[in-house]
Amino acid sequence: MLLRRVPRAVAIARGVATGRGDRKLLLRQLFEPVSCTFTYVVADARSRDAVVIDPVLETVPRDLKLLRELQLNVRWAVNTHVHADHVTGSGSLRAALCCPTAISGASGARADRLLGEGDELPFGAFALRVRPTPGHTPGCVTLVLDDESAAFTGDALLIRGCGRTDFQRGCPRTLYRSIHQQIFSLPETCEIYPGHDYCGHTVSTVGEEKRLNPRLTLSPDDFVRVMEGLALPRPRIMDVAVPANLRCGIQDDVA
């Protein structure tokens, strides 16, 4: 296993009443400070069924503690894509909780369930619906709550930004199209929960990003020029993270 000591992680709690009858969503936004990754625990507050989105290997002990404290039953551990900047904790959650893993079939990764457009991950009275949003990688998906009140956008759409497109077969024109067609078509009040943030933001909305995102308000051609000129450094652990994440984060040959 890859283990390293990290600074204290931050948890932000939200309880959200949603539209169908008296459903109540329990949402925890958890932060891993080395890769600036958000992990989300999304649960039905009544049935206690839950989904964990984009867990990080080093913070699995924190996540397990929270899940047990809240008495949640994890139905799915899902990745929005094959990450390059951290090793996923989905394999470790699977080993600890016997929960199935999920990722896009277009990712080329192994998981218990390979997701496609329109698929759902049910948990209690809720479900997350899959919208393909390739461009950062070919296998990126956005997970949208079934009443379209929240979207977990992974590395496709960030708050006032977007995922890079210069490795893992990324394509800026594809990313631009994915965001505009699959995310910006959601209600403007839909809350955006990204996979990373580097500036201290935690949540946005579709309406905010449509108006204020400095990259996504450009024309397609200008967006491509900006993305191709970023000249960002290569992720530090990419050569370790990508092969591990193609195996759902499992660090040996056991599926």
Task: Walk me through this protein's architecture.
By secondary structure, the chain is an alpha/beta fold. 21% of the residues lie in helices and 29% in strands. It has six helices and 15 strands. The strands form three sheets. Strands 1-2-3-4-5-6-7 form a seven-stranded mixed β-sheet, covered by helices on one side. β5, α2 and β6 form a beta-alpha-beta unit. α3 packs across α5. The radius of gyration is 17 Å and the shape is globular. The chain starts with 10 loop residues before the first strand and ends in a 10-residue tail after the last helix.
How is the topology of this model organized?
Elements: E1 11-17, E2 24-32, E3 37-44, E4 49-53, H1 60-69, E5 73-78, H2 90-97, E6 101-104, E7 113-115, E8 120-123, E9 126-132, E10 141-145, E11 150-154, E12 157-158, E13 161-162, H3 172-183, E14 191-194, E15 204-205, H4 206-212, H5 220-228, H6 238-245
Parallel strand pairs: 4-5, 5-6, 6-7, 11-14
Antiparallel strand pairs: 1-2, 2-3, 3-4, 8-9, 9-10, 10-11, 12-13, 14-15
Helix pairs in contact: 3-5
